[in-house]
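Deliverable D5.2: sample structural annotation.
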Amino acid sequence: MVSILNSILTSLMTENEVITNIIIVPLAFIEIFTSMLLFTQLLNIRSTNTQKLIYVITLSTFSIFINIFVPRHIAVFINMLIYPLAIIIVFKTTILKAIIAELVPILIIVLIETIIVNLYYVILNISYNTLLTIPFFRISSLLLIYLLLLIFYLIIKKLKLNIYIFDNYDPKNRMVLIAEAALGIASIGLQFYLIMFYAKNLPLLVSIFSISTVFIYFIFNMYTLTRITTLEITKLNLEESKLYNKTLQLLHDNVRAFRHDFSNIIAGIGGYVQTNDMEGLSKYYSQLLIDCQCTNNLTTLSPVLINNPAIYNVLANKYHRADEKGIKIELSIFYDFNKLNIKIYELTRILGILLDNAIEASCECDKKFINLIIRDEEKNKRQVVLIENTYLDKNINTEKIFEKGFSTKECNTGLGLWQIRQILKKNNNLNLYTSKNNEYFSQSLEIYNT
């Protein structure tokens, strides 16, 4: 029995890369599990137990397979590409959030491993390459890394720390952040391998300082970009306030005018009642209802009801533009915009293009009218954005208008509806139905909850 134990101990303390790789296979599950706990908590990613289980099992199995059959220096980069892809697929996150979810645990693991590797070298005179091939030291170092990573997660959870990555960045800022994050991963990885390669010649403090400098530089750049984006969001909020003040002024003027004429309105109703002129009263009521509807529309055009600043700005701008052209717009909005299953940037583009087209078409008509309805159809698991407008050209081809370069206007590029079709092609949960009748041209955008 003693000899067996000695043999096992000797095997664990002797350089053997094959045995080391076999023994650390189960540790892949621990690493991926602890990393997942960290980034889901830090980035406030909502997930079910099923999603977590699928992520850990799938990614661990794939990682083990890659590490066994692919050379280690190549396997590292393959894993770095697969991790964010798995996060996007399983947790339904954005590309930016997936890259950050990969980057944060890597940064922490690299920093911890750099310290541990140098401690092993200083205390036990074990180089990094030796550490990788002796089973006992490799397992002990990995378990220590995962333990510290778990402690870091528990601290974040206890303090309720979260990094909020805005999903509604415009494409330019989003691409800059993604590029910054990708470069951060590459820089940290390269720095780590350089330090491991020269571990014998570099003091511990120099190694830690080198990794920390890259880490701090990356964090500073991300912070700067986030601050710039925050300023842009503040600018958007100021524009929203400006538009809302304009809406309130119009609403105030309408209410004052209605109050001023209230006695005259009542007197008019009384005249029809006294003469029992129901037909005249009905016509009078219809005219009065039009003015009341205008006031209702202005009440609907509120940031409280349209609870997304980007969408509110688009709708308010188009509403006031139409009002200046004498176009009557009816608004019927019954939905929480924060629950829409579509990127806000894409929705604002679609709304802007469709409303611009509706304004141009109805402006040519004697009856200038646009009807906008946004509603939730819970039974069908979808949201519907319906835009109806009066139009002059009854022979318009509802298929040809989506072709690139097609336009009924001489000065237009004909790219608006073509751009919408490109957005639809990228999203499996979006449908746009175009129809027309003798009075109205209709565009119905369906957003399904997938």
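Annotation notes: The mean pLDDT is 75. The chain has 15 helices and five strands.
The annotation will be released with the project's public dataset once the embargo ends.
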